[in-house]
Amino acid sequence: MNTTPIPETTVEFHLAERPEGWPTPDTFRRVERTLPELAEGEVRVLNRFVSVDPYMRGRMNLGESYVAPFELDAALTGGAVGHVVASNAPELPVGTAVSHDQGWRSVAQGPATTFRRAAEIPGVPLSTSLGILGMTGLTAFVGLRDIAEIKPGDVVFISGAAGAVGTAAGQIARLMGASRVVGSAGTDAKVAMLTERYGYDAAFNYNDAAPVAEQLAEVAPDGIDVYFDNVGGEHLEAAIGALHRGGRIALCGASSEYNVTTPKVGPRNMSRLITQSLRLRGFTIGEHVAVAPEFAKAMGEWFAAGKIAYDETVVEGIENTPQAFIDLLAGKNVGKMVVRVDA
Amino acid sequence: MNTTPIPETTVEFHLAERPEGWPTPDTFRRVERTLPELAEGEVRVLNRFVSVDPYMRGRMNLGESYVAPFELDAALTGGAVGHVVASNAPELPVGTAVSHDQGWRSVAQGPATTFRRAAEIPGVPLSTSLGILGMTGLTAFVGLRDIAEIKPGDVVFISGAAGAVGTAAGQIARLMGASRVVGSAGTDAKVAMLTERYGYDAAFNYNDAAPVAEQLAEVAPDGIDVYFDNVGGEHLEAAIGALHRGGRIALCGASSEYNVTTPKVGPRNMSRLITQSLRLRGFTIGEHVAVAPEFAKAMGEWFAAGKIAYDETVVEGIENTPQAFIDLLAGKNVGKMVVRVDA
């Protein structure tokens, strides 16, 4: 009997079929397979946390997205963090914490060059390197600073504000000098968290009967300068209508559209871009990873100074990854949703 | 009898009522009035040409636009060019050619500071300072260079391409290094002019039965990098759908919406801004007049080198200004439409 804890197999999830509308458990197929022997330059990594993110829904469709669609009958990929448990690469010895893109599985293996060292901060869970200290925080940082070009004094509106990116963005906007930060979320409990925990000045529940434009006008009666869009649809039209001259929108996500199979309705007030000199810019974080060191420095200082609150919704057990993803799309998370591999 | 040619009266057009949908002759009221005596520092200007422009339609509505709405029962304003015929300001002696904002009238009067010297180029009509050498050309220049951030090799799509801005933009895009320039216009005759006279590689008639997206795909089968929007609506959605990753749209006008009273439909593919990192930016030329000297230098060189074709649709007689404006909105112009004051 092998007494070392080196796992010989991995549990991984494959895309069994492309979902139409909402994904279901049938969208996924659980596969357990024996790992090949470690080649020269490779490492084997026991994942501690794997990430589920809204953008993954887009990759489950055929057709263009910002990265290639997931392949059918192959392991899904995504953010993950773990520890090296076997190494044929001197630069990543056993015990090193690494983040990488082989999520949706319990054990990862591949060339050391495809793994990045992850910081282990005493008292801070490793999962934060997938969230507030990782891609999620970076997304909020880049969206506000480089895409929306936030300026001190701006009134900032963030939709889907209780999600991973939204909770980060509200606080970062404030730290970058926003004069007022308002947000929307999908439940009253989330709305309460925005003002009580994340420093939002005001927030509203977009599932209330009142139109988004009306609710936005209540929390930002003098209009807005910046909109950080995680929702799309009705939110986008409302924000275009509320922007001051020279206002800017960073389009980061469109959660209202991910699982919709009925015809969409576009913003009917696009001519306001002309009359008010508005700018709309979409982005995906993959094109902005060069900002990571700058972000790490800024966020590291804010984080160490206790200026950043964060929440994680931790789902226990790799077996529950598909359901975690389905729950994420249904908005059952607050802050970053991750799966702890060893429940 | 006074033997000097100094006019004592002006014919001007007031806004009689705010149009719903298309303006009609009843929208306007002709007023003839005697001019007050010239005050210190003032000049009187006999207009030679007055401009009619699509943006004026927006100012006839109440509600926000990029400039204040036109007032009811007051003279309309707009671009004009003429000669000083009486002067109490030494810096603008009698005979000086000036451009200014007191259009929609035969004679203008006011402080010399509100008039700008206009270049008189031998063999070139003064009306060009309202068009290709003036705000129209500047709008195309700024829209391509500063708003759409055109790069050498870009494939550029321009809608409403036979209009004043569109005919300028197609040529300027090429001079700025576009690899392919395609356009849309509202009649077959205009479409033919685009390729025969204005250097467009291909063009289509947006009043044909085929959807704009289909027609665009035919003239730009490999997609586009830049879209210069003068039309809005269906064109905008088609362009968003055809843009390459990192593509840019300059929103300059929305002629398809100016006189529409039915509910608008917005672009349903806004999430493509995210997946393809697209940028949309609206603008009005009033915020970019600082670029005028740079534009004048560049356009002056192109123009002198015979690289710029232009057309003007000249309507004869100040009395016909309202009809000229109505015809402009109906697309009866090719290139810049102006009214010659003295028919």
UniProtKB/TrEMBL annotation, chains A, B:
Keyword Oxidoreductase assigned: yes
Return the SMART domains for the record.
PKS_ER
SUPFAM superfamilies, sorted: GroES-like, NAD(P)-binding Rossmann-fold domains
Could you tell me the superkingdom of the organism this chain comes from?
Bacteria
Check the record and name the CDD domains matching this protein. Answer: PGDH
Q: Please give the Pfam families that the UniProt record associates with this protein.
A: ADH_N_2, ADH_zinc_N
According to the entry, every stretch annotated as the Enoyl reductase (ER) domain falls at: 23-339
* Keyword set, alphabetical order: Oxidoreductase
Give the GO molecular function terms: oxidoreductase activity, acting on the CH-CH group of donors, NAD or NADP as acceptor
Protein name per its UniProtKB record:
NADP-dependent oxidoreductase
Q: Which organism is it from?
A: Mycetocola lacteus
